[in-house]
Design goal:
The chain has helices at residues 2-20, 82-98, 164-190, and strands at residues 26-28, 44-51, 60-66, 69-78, 102-105, 116-128, 132-143, 149-159. The protein is α/β, with parallel strands linked by helices. It has a single domain, classed as Rossmann fold, CATH 3.40.50. The strands form two sheets. It has a five-stranded mixed beta sheet, covered by helices on one side. Strands 1-4-3 form a three-stranded mixed beta sheet, covered by helices on one side. It is elongated, with a radius of gyration of 22 Å. The N and C termini lie far apart (90 Å).
Length: 195
């Protein structure tokens, strides 16, 4: 009797442990635009600081489930803090859009030599899987040499074209690309390229 109990008990523990194991988490990043690069420029720009709403400033992807309700998805997470993801992608997009390699992220790298600095305040970052991604951000671009600044707002809602969180991350990436374009256009206005 003791032998049967000794064999059954470990098997039961293994079955229970297997039933309690949770599926692995999946991690997502924002991606940069694939737009063609402009001619090489000597412009220098520092991106940051970037702030995001406290409700989405967490590793889990925060999903909007209703007008006043959200869900923290424990299994689907951002690979790095959301404000760092946005800062990185805006900086990489501006490299392509402005045709310069002199775009840095604040405060990870020194911004003391940058001709322009842009601060970004994300006010909404809504995620609705299978539907849309929404980004509302206010940004301020400042030209260092004369301290002139320009403030703009980017509000964009991108449809989610693929199911799951891959499609949601892609939609947010397109929204951040639009934010990047608005900032790049403001730099061009300062430079006299756009009126």
């Amino acid at each position: 009797m003791h032998c049967q109990t000794a064999l059954v008990l470990p098997a039961l523990v293994l079955i229970l442990a297997a039933g309690c194991a949770s599926p692995p988490s999946r991690f997502y990043t924002l991606s940069t635009t694939d737009a063609a690069a402009s001619p090489v420029s000597a412009l220098s720009l520092s991106v940051g600081p970037v702030s995001v709403p406290a409700a989405v400033d967490r590793p889990q992807i925060v999903v909007s489930t209703g007008a006043n309700q959200v869900h923290l998805d424990e299994l689907n997470r951002w690979a790095s803090p959301l404000k760092d993801e946005i800062s990185r992608v805006v900086a990489e997009n501006l490299v392509v859009m402005l045709g310069t390699a002199k775009v840095t992220q604040f405060p990870q790298t020194s911004s003391g030599e940058a001709a322009y600095r842009v601060a970004i305040e994300v006010q909404r970052f809504d995620s609705v899987p299978g539907s849309h991604a929404r980004l509302d951000a206010v940004w301020t671009l400042r030209r260092v040499k004369d301290d002139k600044s320009r403030t703009g707002r980017t509000s964009v809602q991108e449809p989610v074209s693929a199911t799951g969180f891959d499609g949601l991350a892609a939609a947010h990436s397109r929204a951040v690309a639009r934010l990047s374009r608005d900032i790049a256009d403001a730099v061009r206005v300062f430079e006299g390229v756009l009126r």
